Amino acid sequence: MVEIRGLTKRFGKFLALDQLDLNIEDGEMFGFVGPNGAGKTTTMKIISGLLPATSGAATVNGINVLTKPEDIKRVIGYMPDFFGVYDNLKAMEYMEFYASMYGMCGPEATKHCQELMELVDLGDKTDCYVDGLSRGMKQRLCLARCLVHDPQLLILDEPASGLDPRARFEMKGILKKLNKQGKTIIISSHILSELAEMCTTIGIIDQGKMILKGTVDEIMHQFNMANPIEIQVMGELDKALRILKENPLVEDISVNSSALLVRFRGDEEAKVTLLKALVEQGVAVTSFARETGNLEELFMRITEKREVLSK
User: Fold this and answer.
1) pLDDT digits 0-9 by tens, 78-126
2) What tens digit of pLDDT does each residue of 208-238 get?
3) Number of Cβ within a 10 Å radius of residue 6
4) What contacts 180, CB < 8 A, 6 or more positions away?
5) H/E element, 106
6) Among 11, 89, 162, 229, which is disulfide-ready with 94 (CB 3.0 to 4.6 Å)?
7) How far is it, in rounded angstroms, from Cα 192 to Cα 153?
């Protein structure tokens, strides 16, 4: 569906995208994660045909984004982080106005718009003026607008921004429903726990480069592999320390009562071998587990690194 190779974008001396590579398959719900200024919105605008790239290549459903930006509009629905609505229109008038831009009018257009408003749970708001809708309802109306021409790809920049918990929950349910219907979705957000619940794939971008990409489980596994192993033993602490120090994959050990925190750069098989060595040599191991983190912690690590580099 989306293929990006070596995508670069400069704004004067500022390098917003730095040789970015990214693949998104049909039917994915792809979560775009990164600090402010990392390049998420720039990438979205380029693949939406709204911003020219400095260099590189990008295609959406086989269409060259850089040479045929107008053709892209037929296959995507783009929802920016800040969008305008026409407050003096009723919700149905607003939808029919956008439908007319795609050559739809009359009873068929009204029926189509009604179905889309029901899809986003606004079926009872057709006669309400847009300025009388809550922020969450306006967000959903904008999403319905993006669906008027039945795009294959939805590009949503911070769609839950500024919403209360109930409105975020409703938006999340609608996006899951659209994905089940076959829509490919790219969604950026700082609400990482919600991305983890929704998305089939996560991409973490920083300073214009893709740092990590994969399923949530794959990314968290890779992230957690850098965390220490906590080992609790009954007695035999000196023996456990000796065995650990003899292992070439052990980088650092700290002791807290009967718990040992071990920096270990081995894989899962090596971790099993380490536990086996402790048990076979008579160490009574009561707990042996690598500390686990979450997406928020991973985001903070990336942000902290970026702040250090920018000083």
Assistant:
1) 998 877 777 789 999 999 999 999 999 999 999 999 999 999 999 999 9
2) 999 888 887 787 777 777 788 999 998 888 8
3) 14
4) none
5) helix 106-119
6) 89
7) 21
